[in-house]
Amino acid sequence: MVILKSKYEIEAIRKACQVVAECHRTIAPLIKPGITTNEIDRIFEDIMMKHGAKPYQKGYKGYPYATCASTNDVIAHGFPSNKPLEVGDIVTIDTVAELDGWLGDSAWSYAVGDISPMAKKLIRVTKECLDLGIAQAQPGNRLGDVTSAIQRHAESQGFGVVRDLLAHGIGRDLHEEPTYMHVGKPGKGLRIKEGMVFTIEPMITEGTYFMTIDPDGWTARTKDNKLAAQYEHTIAITSEGPQILTMQ
Ligand code: MF3
Ligand code: CO
After folding, report:
1. What pLDDT, on the 0 to 100 scale, is given for residue 221?
2. CA atoms within 13 Å, Cβ hemisphere of 244
3. What are the backbone angles phi and psi of residue 148, rounded to the nearest 5°?
4. Domain contains 1
5. d(CA 95, ligand 1 centre) in Å
């Protein structure tokens, strides 16, 4: 069952989402060779605490950190570490903040110094996939309109769309209905309605979209160890169209 949110509830979710947006705005200029993802994790947690928010991912299903830090061939759910980021890396930082019982979720891919032309193209196309998906999240459209726009763009650029990790409704719970893959057909799937709040979070790969999970039980990597990127926003559907609650 999809839990529709009132205007007041959407404003409460937006507050949680804006804490996440501030986290991303703060670290964007700090992502440079030498910084560690543990340091980034600490900065995220400090910003959440400052706002009276909680790092919801920490302890969620046993996940140990405030953020997921996924470098290069890691698609998602990588652990922050003390290994300094290096020139040429790409890193996706994903987090969820809880404020007054409401959740906000956003992930962003960052370039570490100068990156390869392929890495640049991958993060550009992945962001474009998110934007194209959001543009289709109109009341009256269907989820297939969102997912097919993402799939068509990624595949037209020679990239893959990860199937094994899903986007989701969000509110008081992190994973509400609808849960859906970022692939589909126009005109198919659930109809999008005013009051829905959900994530769009395409994970796009340089090569195969098949993935493996490390022995730590979390770290999801591309099977061919080629690059992966991800951008994620939490959006609300209003009568005027989609609103990006995690807008930075
Ligand atoms: N933020 C993630 C998402 O987009 C959830 C991370 S899983 C966790 O759904 F366990 F690490 F929290
Ligand atoms: Co997320």
Report:
1. 98
2. 18
3. -70, -35
4. no
5. 7
pLDDT on residue 189: 98
Q: Is the dihedral of CA 65, 49, 233, 111 positive or negative?
A: negative
pTM score > 0.90 for this model? yes
Q: State which residues form the domain around 52.
A: 7-244
**Does residue 2 lie within any of the structural domains?**
no
Each residue's pLDDT tens digit, 52-61: 999 999 999 9
**CATH code of the domain in which 134 resides:** 3.90.230.10
Q: Which atom of ligand 1 is nearest to the CA of 57?
A: 12
81 falls within a domain: yes
How many degrees, rounded to 5, is the angle at CA 234 between CA 72 and CA 184?
75
Does residue 93 line the site of ligand 1, with CB under 6 A? Answer: no
pLDDT at 16: 99
In this structure, the residue with its CA closest to atom 12 of ligand 1 is: 57
Residues 6 or more apart whose CB falls under 8 angstroms from that of 50 comprise: none
pLDDT at 214: 98
Assess contact for 97 and 50: CB atoms under 8 A: no
DSSP letters, 153-212, are HHHHTT-EE--SS-EEE-SSSSSEEEEE-S---TT-SPBP-TT-EEEE--EEESS---EE
Low-confidence ranges of the chain (pLDDT < 50): none
pLDDT single digits (tens) 108-166: 999 999 999 999 999 999 999 999 999 999 999 999 999 999 999 999 999 999 999 99
Q: Is 232 in the pocket of ligand 1 (CB under 6 A)?
A: yes
Domains held by the chain: number: 1
pLDDT of residue 135: 98
Ligand 1 and 68: CB distance under 6 A: yes
Q: Does 33 reside within a domain?
A: yes
